[in-house]
Amino acid sequence: MARSRASDTAKNTADSHTATAPTHQIWLAGLGAMAKAQEQGSKAIEALVNDGLAFQRKSQAQAQQRLQEATERLSHLASDFGQQTHVRIDRLEHLFEDRVGKALERLGIPTLYDLQALTERVAQLEAQLAKATTTPPKAVRTTVRTATQTAAKTSAKSAAKTPASRTARKV
Question: Could you tell me which of 147, 158, 16 has the C-alpha nearest to residue 166?
């Protein structure tokens, strides 16, 4: 029996050794993988950091480009809107001016053009007056006498033609 026990113990030890061998190998493989990961981990992290920086730069460049495009579109829209607004304001101004001008005309208030025409006429009359005052006094007296005599003759002729003046003569 002692012999059989010894052979059983040897058999059990061999069985446990064969059973623990694969488990032990798996354990050692895991430790090896961990060691390799530590060695290559720093290299992998550096590669990932570099990839992340490149991606960030690319994303920022694209965002900057899209922002610039949006800004250009908005500036075009704003200038178009400004031009449309300017045209509409001009139309409103002309409409307002026309209506105010018509209202002033109905009230009999002279326009700017009327005032300019009067100013030009006054300037012409002043020039004629200045010219007349610079002529010799005899010529002015003669001109005044001639104008007065002509006016008197004209009014006498017109008075003679009216029926009331004929009856006045008869009396």
Answer: 158
